Amino acid sequence: MSGPLLEGLPPIVDDDARILILGNMPSVMSLAAQEYYGNPRNAFWRIAADIVGFDPSSAYADRTVALRGSGVAVWDVLQMCRRVGSLDSAIEPDSMVANDFGSFFDAHPTIDRVFFNGAAAEKNFIRLAGVDRPLRYRRLPSTSPAQTMRYEDKLRAWREALAG
Q1: Does the predicted model carry a pTM greater than 0.90?
Q2: Largest separation between any pair of C-alpha atoms in the chain
Q3: Do 5 and 80 form a contact (C-beta atoms < 8 A)?
Q4: Which of 11, 94, 109, 137 suits a disulfide with 75, CB 3.0-4.6 Å?
Q5: HSE, side-chain direction, 13 A CA sphere, residue 56
Q6: Closest CA to 143 of 119, 160, 161
């Protein structure tokens, strides 16, 4: 059975971004809301708020302003794919199309660190993105509720990475 063709979201980014956080593909809830990390059980906004210093329950536009003001960009590895549900494991491998990272990094030359929000983002970036740039890459624990690591441990890993 073939899943629906899904198209991702545009990046959250400013011209002076220094850090790019890459997810794999937005969840069903995120796509419906047209907001990154739209599942309230996903820890992304809570972690970002604890590190950057904003109210995680504030309006989406305010949260994205806070991230951009901190030099943080958010995007996903996949531009489109077929998937039933929200799990990365449900994505049909042959349907994956990566975002245009060459053009993205050309347009945002101040980005020097890329953090992967989980293993699937890292794996698919390496497999599909074709980026040959001297950037620092690091996989972080997924903020997804499917990743059962304690919140405090996720926060510690993310805080160390973003501070470095």
Answers
A1: yes
A2: 44
A3: yes
A4: 11
A5: 16
A6: 119
Instruction: Find, among 102, 113, 124, 116, the residue nearest to 147 by Cα.
Output: 116
Query: Residue 1 pLDDT > 70, yes or no?
Result: no
pLDDT digits (tens, 9 = 90+) for 61-119: 999 999 999 999 999 999 999 998 877 888 898 999 999 999 999 999 999 999 999 99
Q: What is the pLDDT of residue 87?
A: 74
Spell out the residues 6+ positions from residue 73 whose beta carbon is closer than 8 angstroms to its own.
11, 12, 13, 14, 17, 19, 20, 21, 67, 108, 111
* Exposure b/e, 138-158, CB count within 10 A at least 16 = b: ebbbbbbeeeeeeeeebbebb
Q: Which three-class secondary structure string do you get for 62-121?
A: HHHHHHHHCCEEEEECEEEEEECCCCHHHECHHHCEECCHHHHHHHCCCCCEEEEECHHH
Query: What local confidence, expressed as pLDDT, does residue 63 receive?
Result: 98
- Rounded to the nearest 10°, the torsion over CA 32, 41, 70, 159 is -150
